[in-house]
Structure formats: C-alpha cells, structure tokens
Amino acid sequence: SYLLLVSSGLAEQVSAQDLEPRRWSHLPIGQTIVGVGYAYTEANVFFSPVLNLTDGTSRINGLGFSVIHTLDLAGKSARISLLLPYLSGRWEGDIDGEHQVIHRNGAGDPRLRLSMNLYGAPPLKGPAFAQYRAEHTTNTVVGVSIAVTAPLGKYCDDCLINIGNNRWSVRPQVGVVHTRGPWSFELTGSAFVFTDNDSFIDNAVLEQKPMYALQTHVVYDFKPGSTASSTRRLSRMFRLESLESEIALFWFLKKTGHQFRKPCISFQFLECGSQFR
After folding, report:
1. Nearest to 242 by CA among 222, 215, 272
2. d(C-alpha 31, C-alpha 218), whole Å
3. What is the pLDDT of residue 68?
4. Is 27 left (phi over 0), alpha (psi -120 to 50) or beta?
5. Phi and psi angles of residue 51, each rounded to the nearest 5 degrees, phi first
6. Region 25-34: what's the mean pLDDT?
7. Which InterPro entries does its entry note (predicted)?
C-alpha cells in the first residue's frame, strides 16, 4: 500500500510481506490472537526509462494491528484474520533531472484472510490438542488460504504517490510447513489478482497483470513464547527491480479460556529480492 509511481505494485509487494511467519502452524481452535507488528522497508527502485524517473528510493515504516481467530471449518482447522495497517514513508528520486522528496502517511488498505489446513493439523483444543502435539514432534501440515484487500486506505487521485491502492486485490495461497523438534520449515506460493484503478493520476486507468510470489521461512523455537525466523521471498511483476530488507518485531497476546499466556515475541528477518515485468 505504498507506491504509485509506475503503479501501486510496489505497495502490494511490500504489504505482501505478512507479519505472520507461522501462517500454517497448527493452533488449537476457539482461540483469539491479537497482534501488533512493526516493519521497516528500505528499497532502491528502478523505473521504466519512458517515465524519466531515476535514482528512486523509498523508506517506509509500517505499523499493523491484527486479530486472528481459530475455528473448526468443515472438519478442518482454520483461521480468519484481519490486518489494519498504518504507514509512514519517504520517497525520493530524480524526475526529469530534478531531485524530488515527498512524504506520505495514513491508514493502508485493510486485509481479510481465511486459511484452512487440509492435512496434518486436525481441529483440536485443550488436552486433546496438547496430547496431539506431544505425540507429533515431527509433522507436516498442508494448507490453503484466500485473502482479500479492500481499497479503504488513504488515497488521492491527484497525487503521484499514495498510501492506499484504490483497487481490490485477491490472493490465493497454498503452503506447507514441516516441523521437526524446535525447527519449522515453511514454503508458501501466492498469486495476486488485481482490479483496475480507475482514478490513477492524470485520469489514467491502472491495470496490472497477476503477480506470483514464493516465500520461505525457517523458524526456531528457543522456548515457549519466543521464536526467531529467517525469510526469503521472490516475486515477479512489472518492470521494476528492488532489493528490500525488513526487520519486524511482533507481540502476540494469546487468550486461552480466561487465562492469558505470556506475550509471544517473534523476530522476523526478511531478505527480499523482487523482479517486476
């Protein structure tokens, strides 16, 4: 939900870095997880030569509030989540040889996501869930999901750069996670489908072909409530190349019955390479 220079594609690519490295993990049903996350993205951006935009860079701070609820859906463990982002960024570059700097901040486009584990994660809770996890320290889970991003973020059709994208996007996903002791290895494939932005700058209509992405996570559990993960992501869309690094810190407050467990702190180190066409 960040950049609308060539398109809002960079925004979609950045916001696609979910603040949820364990999206396919087996969780007990009937739980509600509240999360607050921070992410910083810095990128060098290369645009099509016809735009006369050179030496483009962006620095973006993102704050996200999320609510996740786990449930039994058609005999499978599932979760539904809502992400509400707030973004503040600085963009600069040379336009027709003149250096320009601009700042934007505001609410980003919210995202609603429904995911279901098809294999390896039965819908359990309480003692039954604890017993299953104790007996399956080595396990493989396969899941699918669908996410919808709504065009409700801050947007101005007279601005070259916007926080919101002013278009709907739908993202189906399929993923697998293999857990062996304290280690978890995740692989997720995604497709992004976009509607048109009919209010692009200068009364133009922005169209975008579907984008495809592949993301991996390696997670290590140091102890209950604390994890570290390393992520690598490759995505393709548009004529744009960027190399991004993000460090995100998350706090999850998980409610179990009427008792609250200790906050779970997760450090996510992201190294992301993107090629657009």
Report:
1. 272
2. 24
3. 93
4. beta
5. -90, -10
6. 93
7. FApF (IPR025737)
Domain residue ranges of the chain, discontinuous segments joined by +: 9-275
Q: Which residue's structure tokens are 């939900």?
A: 1
pLDDT band at 19 (very low <50, low <70, confident <90, very high): very low
> 50 CB contacts (<8 Å, ≥6 apart)?
none
Span 135-162, average pLDDT: 93
What Rg value do the Cα atoms of the chain yield, rounded?
Answer: 20
9-275: which CATH architecture?
Answer: Beta Barrel (2.40)
| 3 state SS of 148 | strand
pTM (2 decimals)? 0.73
Question: Of 54, 46, 164, nearest to 104 (Cα)?
Answer: 164
Contacts 24+ apart (CB under 8 A), 195-199: 195/167, 195/168, 195/169, 196/167, 197/8, 197/165, 197/166, 197/167, 199/155, 199/157, 199/166
Is the pLDDT at 8 greater than 90? The verdict is no
Continuous segment of H or E residues that includes residue 14: helix 9-15
User: DSSP states of 226-266 as a string?
Assistant: EEEEEEEEEEE-SS-EEEEEEEEEEEEEEEETTEEPPPEEE
- 57-87, pLDDT tens digit by residue? 889 999 999 999 999 999 999 999 999 999 9
C-beta contacts of 117-122 below 8 A and 24+ residues apart: 117/24, 117/26, 117/76, 117/77, 117/78, 117/141, 117/142, 117/143, 118/76, 118/142, 118/143, 118/144, 120/26, 121/24, 121/26, 121/76, 121/77, 122/77
Report whether pLDDT(222) > 80: no
